[in-house]
Task: structure prediction
Amino acid sequence: METREKIIIIGGGFAGLQLAKNLNKTKKKVIVIDKVNHHMFQPLFYQVASGRIEPSNISFPFRKIFQNSRNTFFRMTEVQKIVPTENKIITDAAEFHYDKLIIATGCKTNFFGNDKMENLTFGMKNTQEAISIRNHVLLTFEKLIIERGRSNEANWNIVIVGSGPTGVELAGAFAEMKAEILPRDYPNMNFSQLKIILISATEKPLSVMSNDSQDKSEKYLNDLGVQFLSGERVTDYDGEVVSMASGLQIPSKNVIWAAGVTGNIIDGLSAESVFKNRYKVDRHNRVIGCDNIFAIGDISYMETELYTTGHPQVANVAITQGKNLAKNLQKKPGQPWENYEYHDKGSMATIGKHRAVVDLPKLKFQGVFAWYFWMFLHLMLILSVRNKLAIFFNWMWSYLNKDSSLRLIIIPNKKNKTIQ
Ligand SMILES: Cc1cc2nc3c(=O)[nH]c(=O)nc-3n(C[C@H](O)[C@H](O)[C@H](O)COP(=O)(O)OP(=O)(O)OC[C@H]3O[C@@H](n4cnc5c(N)ncnc54)[C@H](O)[C@@H]3O)c2cc1C
Result:
């Protein structure tokens, strides 16, 4: 008969993984459930999408992470429903009972309920989607060299919707690809017609960053030849033409949607627990209306004195909420729990080689030093020495050769063999 407290964590992203690691080697039984078998380092998805690094460099199998753990177990399955009255969750594969449940399911791309947009554009919220973008863009280049001048204008335009860090970084990476890599891979082809177009609802890119960073990132995008369309709201896309509220239309068969995220809510909790598609939590990350259910990371919504409308959905919040909850869950009965608060450590984005913008709480800087700073910090955050070295090697190789050698088109065979 199991006597250990059983904690189930749904989601092994930044928040769930941090919590599981901090509960490792405690007397609790921890089960991490995720629909994929690996932790994903999302900030570098854009480098997978633009063929700079391999997906394996930023993906970390849970079984490897917990290989030596005696109290943490991993199950790969998608959670479909929470039944709080019975302390159980229902997944694709089985039902699991818990003493405490932690929801750390993060977000998915927000298509604002537009099914057409969802079906016809590319999101970039998991490794598979980043690989799909890479395949699609590389296939487009192959198509262009065959069709040449006959090719439809829609093939020549790569459109990215949304000018947050994801959109800006991706636009910069594609613009660099056009300038440095395509002339070498396709020496007899003129790619001057290829346009990288970044559509932004705001006047400036990176609207949540400082004015200096917004201005500088706009300049960097211009320097790289990215067409930045500001103050434009996309209203429709039919697979061939992107339409905007202003009436402007852009032909494109390559549209990447980076215009926002929404929470991965699971069925089962009452309406009072959910706010703006996130779980509403108290200062201990306990879901409102529940005793033994907590939510951490992007999926949680917590109002504090510093953040009266919830915390930003960034990796640092997820990691620190995971750490704080791990500490609280280990308190003895009667011991007071610590409130969570986020102390902003800053934000940054890179827009091609030698160009980055960094906003730290007391210092803002842009340019080459910011770029080195960005690289250093991301390398430090990547899990496992092997992956740090692999990424460092790839970056150095592209830095010295202005090239990376990873532009593989690998599309899974449609025949899906599974063990019955
Ligand atoms: C392209 C991109 C770039 C980003 N860049 C930055 C950056 O530069 N800096 C920064 O601070 N933040 C960045 N972010 C945001 C950052 O990645 C998130 O804030 C962070 O991942 C949130 O962590 P999380 O643990 O809450 O969720 P996630 O990391 O999203 O993890 C959620 C996990 O839950 C699993 N899951 C979801 N639903 C279910 C279910 N029903 N059943 C089982 N498993 C489920 C998923 O498979 C996933 O593993 C970026 C995000 C994206 C998409």
